[in-house]
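User: Sequence recovery, please. Input:
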């Protein structure tokens, strides 16, 4: 086995993303790529370039401001001219418009290609030295190559090249084609390789050998960015190799012998023409500045007898010849065309693959969750980075990228805000760990008592504890007068370093914002903006470079202030999910009802404008959530933690639940209101205890207690098995004590009538504004939780069953109870019991309710939902064959 020990090539492609992005599932077969859409084909672009460019923008999701549109159109015209000029020369291969058509080659190089020096090749052994080379080899046709994949905006071509070679040798040795995980290499192979920052195929082979193999693409799916290493999947190896060897350098003959026996990882120099390659045998001008990793999967000759290489790329099936390209072979240059013979290697395999590795055990997963909850990284020692800017510039989208989950509500609403309450969570950008805070859009000149003015004051309190501020601009719209006002306000309220970020800059190179934005941004006095796209993940490597000195210095200052030893800057597995205050139900890392018993998750729900946020602030003892007289003020469901009598409490303030027919009345549009409602429902569905807040004044005025929607909400909570607590807020608005007591009695009676599944639900009267009665809420909540989580021993249950049998002997209910052999509790939260019954006749619903009520009364389960499962004895059917006589 040969190992390259000197400084070696690191192949970089598209180092444009450094945070979590959307998953990409690869096809198992080749993606059949059609020609460019007729609306922006070469002929259409030649006839009407602007119309074709607009069609190109629509097809690829591009959006440019007026100044940038003119620049991109000029680039598009230039590329059309370059392609037409080349195709007119009959060079043996064709170029065509593709997804890179609005980029110059310099921009393409900065965004998608990188260059580091090549080290020495150490070919100690070449097993194919005496191998014969047939006229034609096609490993794709032989079934040894998986479908074309797409690395997107991530410099992970080295990983795709390495996995392709391992997939090939595994097929040759086992007869099974298994698509392997590039993401595992990007995430976990960090000793020498750099994830989306580039890598080397030889280093990837070394990692696979050391790790014992790789997981599958299906189980460790590809993201277009580097994330934390998933240790659960890293330990599950499916395909292994024993070693790897380097092909003798600068020898196409040696490379041909290797390719004749297996797919081979190769490095090439991606030239300007390769940017638009579409068909034919690629030749012409060559280069040797290696910057891209691909997979050589065959060799052959064309109709004229000219030899070529068949190469698999990782730019998707829409590029080239269905994701592949053919390239001239046996050229005079010793390096081969595009340097293909300069750095080639292949894995070796003789041992069988590891035996089926079991999935991570439930016990281990619980231990991992417990370790996460123990705060392996103390958030108080992490630097704080606030994300600020005027409304609708993409602050929440950047926040979602940084924390790795789609938590904050995101919607394009130019006329108003989406975010109102700030949201914070632990973020990871490369090896940087910090607390990111998403703030509301800043409008410093708002009227004193408006919602915007209150959000500005809330943002000011956040900035007081921030170590750095990302000031976000809209790269499409440019610098507006309101941006100047935001900068002036930030400088007055936060002495921390301001870092300028230009969002919505899709298709840009590193540190490259549009020219008109660059000139306008310099007038802000904050330097050159970092061009990023929160939507695609581009530019986050540049953001890492800009943030690193700020975050590192702030982290060191916090550690010194806390007199704590300096921990590693890299977060442990799952650390991006450590801040429970940013978890959202239904998302990766969101909390479940099986959490640590000492932590109580409470969700505050109710109709709009009943005082939910005011109650939350009162319980926390600080103004965490925005409050005011306007209904529907809260949009995001945001959590915060506090401690009550030594117990950890996680409190979630949710948006007011509005009927579907009224969603269009939301000033930000129906879509935002729908998202807010869905998020609120997810949050309370997974809470331990749900606090329904109602308006006591309305309950007394209606003379009927809770409204129909509030009763339906309570029923839904009980149906989901959550613990329930009803709070009548604004009790101070009622005229006297008699009216208050009457309102409480009406609500309690209403709950008993209409909610028999949770008889005894606690009902409290409070005033969140003045604090009256609030001190009774937490004791009641904890008491209800203890009942909800209570377990009754089986022996006690069956002694109770004998008592019921004795008490109801001779009655119809007693005869049904006599069928029960024994009762046991099968789970808690909610309390769930199973009764094992003889016979096959089902229990009636009335008898089931009778037993539940008896259980609730005898074992003291007031106010919590309960379940009773009837397990009937199964009898095998006896089939009798009757022989009939013939007549």
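Assistant: Recovered sequence (887 residues):
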């Amino acid at each position: 086995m040969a190992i390259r020990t000197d400084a070696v090539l690191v192949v970089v492609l598209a180092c444009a993303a450094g945070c979590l992005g959307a998953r990409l599932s690869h096809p198992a077969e080749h993606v059949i790529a059609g020609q460019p859409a007729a609306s922006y084909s070469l002929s259409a672009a030649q006839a009407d370039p602007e119309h074709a460019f607009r069609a190109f923008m629509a097809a690829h999701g591009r959006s440019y401001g007026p100044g940038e549109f003119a620049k991109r159109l000029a680039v598009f015209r230039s590329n059309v001219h370059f392609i037409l000029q080349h195709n007119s020369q009959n060079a043996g291969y064709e170029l065509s418009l593709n997804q890179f058509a609005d980029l110059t080659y310099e921009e393409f190089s900065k965004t998608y290609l990188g260059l580091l020096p090549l080290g020495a090749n150490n070919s100690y052994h070449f097993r194919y030295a005496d191998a014969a080379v047939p006229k034609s080899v096609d490993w794709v046709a032989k079934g040894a190559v998986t479908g074309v994949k797409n690395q997107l905006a991530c410099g992970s071509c080295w990983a795709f090249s390495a996995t392709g070679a391992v997939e090939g040798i595994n097929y040759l040795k086992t007869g099974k084609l298994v698509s392997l995980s590039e993401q595992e290499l990007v995430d976990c192979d960090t000793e020498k390789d750099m994830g989306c920052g580039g890598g080397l195929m030889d280093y990837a082979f070394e990692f696979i050998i050391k790790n014992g193999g790789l997981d599958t693409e299906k189980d460790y799916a590809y993201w277009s960015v580097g994330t934390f290493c998933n240790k659960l999947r890293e330990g599950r190896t499916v395909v292994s190799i024993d070693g790897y060897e380097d092909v003798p350098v600068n020898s196409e003959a040696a490379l041909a012998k290797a390719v004749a026996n297996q797919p081979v990882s190769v490095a090439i120099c991606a030239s300007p023409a390769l940017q638009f390659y579409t068909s034919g045998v690629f030749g012409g001008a060559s280069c040797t500045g290696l910057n891209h990793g691909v997979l050589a999967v065959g060799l052959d000759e064309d109709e004229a007898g000219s030899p070529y290489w068949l190469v698999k790329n990782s730019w998707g099936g829409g590029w080239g010849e269905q994701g592949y390209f053919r390239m001239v072979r046996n050229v005079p240059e010793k390096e081969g065309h595009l340097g293909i013979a300069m750095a080639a290697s292949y894995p070796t395999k003789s041992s069988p693959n590891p035996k089926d590795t079991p999935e991570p055990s439930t016990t281990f997963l619980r231990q991992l969750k417990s370790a996460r909850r123990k705060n392996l990284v103390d958030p108080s020692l992490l630097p704080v980075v606030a994300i600020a800017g005027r409304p609708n510039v993409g602050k929440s989208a950047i926040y979602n990228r940084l924390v790795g989950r789609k938590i904050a509500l995101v919607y394009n609403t130019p006329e108003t805000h989406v975010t109102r309450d700030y949201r914070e969570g632990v973020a990871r950008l490369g090896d940087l760990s910090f607390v990111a805070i998403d703030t509301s859009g800043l409008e410093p000149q708002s009227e004193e008592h408006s919602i915007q003015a209150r959000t500005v004051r809330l943002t000011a309190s956040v900035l007081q504890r921030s170590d750095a501020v990302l000031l976000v601009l809209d790269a499409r719209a440019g610098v507006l007068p309101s941006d100047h006002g935001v900068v002036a306000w930030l400088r007055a309220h936060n002495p921390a370093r301001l870092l300028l970020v230009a969002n919505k800059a899709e298709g840009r190179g590193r540190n490259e914002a549009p020219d008109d934005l660059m000139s306008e941004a310099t007038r802000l006095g904050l330097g050159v903006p970092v061009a990023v796209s929160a939507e695609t993940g581009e530019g986050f490597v540049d953001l890492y470079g800009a943030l690193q000195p700020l975050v590192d210095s702030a982290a060191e200052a916090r550690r010194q202030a806390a007199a704590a030893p300096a921990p590693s800057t890299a977060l442990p597995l799952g650390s991006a999910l450590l801040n429970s205050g940013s978890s959202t139900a239904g998302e990766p890392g969101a909390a479940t009802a099986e959490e640590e018993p000492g932590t109580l998750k409470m969700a505050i729900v109710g109709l709009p404008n009943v005082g939910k946020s005011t109650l939350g602030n009162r319980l926390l003892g600080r103004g965490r959530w925005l409050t005011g007289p306007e209904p529907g003020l809260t949009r995001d469901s945001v959590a915060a933690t506090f401690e009550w009598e030594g117990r950890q409490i996680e409190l979630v303030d949710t948006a007011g639940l509005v009927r579907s027919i009224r969603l269009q009345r939301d000033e930000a549009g129906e879509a935002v209101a729908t998202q807010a409602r869905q998020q609120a429902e997810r949050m309370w569905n997974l809470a331990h205890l749900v606090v329904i807040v109602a308006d006591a004044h309305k309950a007394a005025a209606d003379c009927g207690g809770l409204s129909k929607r509030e009763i339906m909400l309570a029923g839904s909570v009980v149906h989901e098995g959550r613990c329930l607590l009803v709070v009548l807020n604004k009790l101070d608005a009622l005229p006297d004590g008699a009216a208050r007591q009457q309102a409480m009695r009406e609500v309690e009676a209403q709950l008993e009538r209409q909610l028999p599944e949770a008889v005894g639900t606690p009902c409290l009267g409070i005033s969140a504004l003045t604090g009256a009665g609030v001190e009774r809420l937490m004791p009641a909540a904890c008491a209800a939780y203890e009942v909800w989580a209570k377990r009754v021993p089986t022996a006690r249950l069956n002694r109770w069953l004998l008592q019921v049998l004795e008490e109801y002997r001779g009655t119809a209910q007693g005869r049904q109870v006599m069928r029960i052999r024994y009762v046991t509790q099968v789970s808690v939260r909610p309390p769930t019991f199973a009764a094992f019954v003889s016979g096959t006749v089902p229990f009636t619903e009335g008898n089931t309710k009778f037993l539940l009520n008896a259980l609730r009364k005898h074992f003291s389960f007031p106010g919590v939902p309960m379940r009773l499962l009837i397990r009937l004895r199964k009898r095998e059917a006896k089939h009798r064959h009757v022989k009939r006589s013939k007549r």
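The chain has five domains: 38-103, 115-348, 366-581, 585-788, 794-872.
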